[in-house]
Each structure stands twice: as structure tokens, then as C-alpha cells.
Amino acid sequence: MFPGLGCRRQNILRCSKIGKGKRCFAGSQKARSMKKKHLKSLNTIEKWLVTETGNPKGLKDAFETIRNAIEDLPETVAIKVIGTLPAPIEIGDEVETIAVYSDGGCRGNPGPGAFAFVIQQHNGEVIAEGVEYEAYTTNNKMELSGPLKGLHELLIVLPAMGRDPLLTKVKIITDSKYVVDGMKSWVKGWKSRGWKKADNKAPENLDLWQALDLVREKFMQVEWMWVKGHAGHAQNEYCDRKANEVMDDNSSR
Asked: Does residue 230 carry a catalytic annotation?
């Protein structure tokens, strides 16, 4: 469970470029069960061979190699990604910078809501994306949760790519001025007053603000950028569509 996000249904996708194509991976309990099943089968086969062959030289090492290979497999299952996104214009020539796009919304406010994020390298390669639904929430919570989950996902994805988050610059792109203004301006003042506003009251969604402030310290730099929503921005529209799709799916149940 991620700090500040509580307990929600999670559907996180990790993508990696393979040859000229692209595969995405969704975390799966089924994948973990398959690994456990294969390891159990391997142990059974090893015991049988030891009994039948008298444990010849090299047998134990061979099985240990196979066992390690299975244990090292990612606990994920492959799914197909349809469509492509353009390279992030907000990065430009910053080849080492990572772009995190997010959008969140709520129907009723409060009411059922969702957020989505997509993470790209400068060349447009999608390295992770995700969407989550919450049955009762607010618009601002969803707008804050998108970049929060995206940054937490980067802490997993970057080391797998051989990159150190503390040496990585990240740009968060969102259509929420609430998020951008908060992280660029308000948080600093709140922290100086012991996480209090000027009226000495705690900010709304304090847990999410604190979690965002904490996770951004795990990167070299996190920059916050605003884009106009529903204005044809490809990544913003993509996140908006994904968030609305998961709300539609849950409303029909």
C-alpha cells in the first residue's frame, strides 16, 4: 500500500520496449501463483531424479540454476497495448528526463472517481501506466493521487531499468492547477507552519500532500507543469479517457 493512497483496487501497468514492438505488464496474483506452482513442480522432479539416478554430479547445480531463473521472473503477466502516444513535448531535448502525465476526476464530488497516469521517456517510449478507481472520493483526491502513484511506480521501474531515482529528473504534467500550485507554492508555506495554513487549520487532503512531498525527495528533481485539460493534449486526453473508462466500467456493475 502506498502512503497517502489508502486501500484501493490497483491496476498498475509496467511497459518495456522489446524489439520494434511494445509489451505492457499488469501486476497479477495469478503470475505469483504460477511461479509458486512451477517451483513446487521443480522440487518434485529433482527429488525423483535424485532417487532414480543416485544424484549424479552437477544435478543439484543444474536445478539450482533453473530455480533461480524462475524466482527471478517478474510477478507479472503480459497484456497487449493498443495505440501509441507521441513523444512528450514537455521534455524536449532532455534525454534523461522522465515525463509523468496524470489526470483524475470524480462524478458527484464526492462520489465515484478514478485517476490514471502514463510515464514516458523522451523518445515517447511508455515505461509504465496505471489506472485506479475509488467508489467514494473527491476530484482533488484523484488529481493528487495520479502523480503520487506515478512517482511511486517510478521508484520500482527506474531501478529495473538500471537507473537511480536520485539521479533522475522527473516532470509531472497535469491539468490540475490545484496540484501544480500546491506543490510549487503552498506546500512550502504549510511546512514552515508545521503543516498548517495561514488560518492555522490543516490543509484538506493533508495525507496526500505530505505523501507527495515525501516521495519527490526520492528523485533528483521533480518539476510540476500545468496543461489545459480537454484541449487536445494527447497524453492528458489519454489519462482522462482511461480514468473515465474505469468509472464507466464500475458504474455498470
From this structure: yes
